[in-house]
Prior knowledge:
The protein contains 9 helices and 7 strands, in the order ααααβαβαββαβααββ. By secondary structure, it is α/β, with parallel strands linked by helices.
Amino acid sequence: MLAAGHKATAHPRALQTICSRADAFGRPAPGRRVGTRTEPAREAAYTACVNDDDVPSGIDLRLPHVAHAWTAEADVKRPYRADARALIAERVAVHGARRVLELGGGPGLLAEAIVARQPVDYTLLDFSEPMLALSRQRNPGITCVLRDFLDPAWPDGLGTFDAIVTMQAVHELRHKRRAQLLYTQAHAVLAAGGLVVVADHEPPETRVRARDLHATADEQHGYLGGAGYRDVETIATFGTLYVIAARATR
Length: 250
Ligand SMILES: C[S@@+](CC[C@H](N)C(=O)[O-])C[C@H]1O[C@@H](n2cnc3c(N)ncnc32)[C@H](O)[C@@H]1O
């Protein structure tokens, strides 16, 4: 375990060692690229991934049977998810977005709602190949990218987007303290005035360490504002799910 206050050094090998330890909660890190970049911003991102207080996930969504079971149950457990998807699709359409990126898009249910509303050039990023396979089946026309959004290089080569959306995925950062960094990275690939829509859960009272894992809507407003977005607004809540929209400042 790393000592409190430990800082990553600039040495690539040291960073590699530290970042592989960041997965000590048992999650393998296929494709995670570490150890070759030494720019200050990337170093800061590496440092942010080094922490002992991550909240481990009880399930590995990269296993085919887990991805399939999650997909089969998600809307049954939370029927209001469909309403949230319809609202997000409407926002994206009203914004006039033509290029849309989804982070942690999983089986492509939100992609389906957005693409059905209007034709868009859609990129869905996820670190689970079985999830991407489900998404491709549901949305043959979209681009699916196998990538880990804990990798500081996740935005590389994706292009520029008019809108970035994410639903029930930000808590997969495994600690809410990483949310602002994710939004800063997203800001860099948003066009001027671009739209971001974040939907996730208020911390469930019943879960251990839920307040470390899940940001409240108010906390999300702070992270988005801190990452340089304006017009941050909770546009709806569905059960415990909040939907927040904001605009890129550039
Ligand atoms: C709870 S599911 C939500 C899926 C989808 N957004 C939905 O609401 O239907 C979370 C998704 O995030 C993906 N995910 C988890 N950790 C990730 C990471 N570090 N990088 C990229 N995707 C990740 C999972 O594979 C899964 O598809």
